[in-house]
Design goal:
Blueprint: E1 6-10, H1 17-26, E2 30-35, H2 38-47, E3 57-61, H3 67-77, E4 82-85, H4 100-128, E5 131-136, H5 139-142, H6 149-168, E6 173-179, H7 186-191, H8 203-213, E7 225-227
Parallel strand pairs: 1-2, 1-4, 2-3, 4-5, 5-6, 6-7
This protein binds NADP nicotinamide-adenine-dinucleotide phosphate (NAP).
């Protein structure tokens, strides 16, 4: 078996992120996850208690929208070759009724987190000349519906940044994004109880795609935006 890879999964305490953590653990990797909300971190600690995580899961209290917070996560994680930028947030509403503070919040949680984490991780990835970054966009960023202006603009920034960074770094460092539509998470079920959940994508399906994009099996895939 290969040496475990060092993997950062931001948003790893969230609805999608927990499935991503589970998938990388199953692949034999070491995972570092930042957290802010104590309750979420506790749930993850309980879910991945030994023997599954087997000491391979590290939870770090840090705000990765800040340069210092992202650097602290990287320092705690050690040698990292994969970064999954899954931290994110959502808000909707008609533009005329959306305060500009919502734009700031969504930019911070969806864009600044990705920018800060990539900035912290890139020197190490460039030094080793090999690695993968997988960002989480949204289908709505490329097929925007009405009523989601601030959200789709923030995710469109993630999409554009993904493509730009993919062209900036050497070919050994692959930067790609997945674009989920509605994910079958507990939060979405609570928010839309009358929806047909069978039409939503399961977190595990997206996690499998992310693990594949981070693997050598996807060694020719760079700058891809993969709808999931
Ligand atoms: N859910 C959907 O239907 C859907 C659809 C399309 C795209 N997406 C995208 O998929 C990703 C995951 O969605 P989700 O529904 O799983 O989200 P979620 O359950 O709300 O989880 C978001 C995660 O991001 C973390 N986070 C946010 N800001 C952070 C910061 N500054 N520093 C550290 N951690 C931070 C949160 O940690 P704490 O809890 O500790 O604060 C939480 O673990 C997001 O990027 C989202 O935009 C989701």
């Amino acid at each position: 078996m290969n040496e475990p890879r060092g993997v950062i999964v931001t948003g790893g305490t969230g609805g999608l992120g927990q499935a991503v953590v589970a998938a990388f653990l199953a692949a034999g990797d070491r995972i570092a996850v930042p957290w802010i909300a104590e309750a979420e971190a506790r749930r993850v600690r309980e879910r991945f208690a030994s023997p599954l995580a087997d000491g391979r899961l590290l939870l770090v209290e840090t705000d990765i929208a800040e340069a210092d917070g992202a650097a602290a996560l990287l320092a705690a994680a050690g040698d990292v070759s994969v970064v999954v930028n899954g931290a994110g947030g959502f808000a909707g509403g008609a533009h005329a009724e959306t305060e500009l503070t919502v734009w700031d919040q969504l930019y911070r949680v969806n864009v600044r987190t990705v920018a800060a984490m990539c900035r912290a991780a890139l020197p190490g990835l460039l030094a080793r000349g090999h690695g993968a970054i997988v960002n989480i966009g949204a289908t709505a960023a490329v097929e925007p519906p009405g009523g989601l202006g601030a959200y789709v603009a923030s995710k469109a920034a993630v999409v554009a940044f993904t493509r730009s960074l993919a062209r900036e770094v050497p070919p050994g460092i692959r930067v790609n994004a997945v674009l989920p539509s509605t994910i079958d998470t507990p939060a979405n079920r609570a928010a839309m109880p009358d929806a047909d959940f069978s039409r939503w994508t399961r977190p595990e399906q997206i996690a499998d795609t992310i693990v594949w994009l981070a693997s050598d099996a996807a060694s020719a895939v760079r700058g891809a935006l993969v709808p999931v």
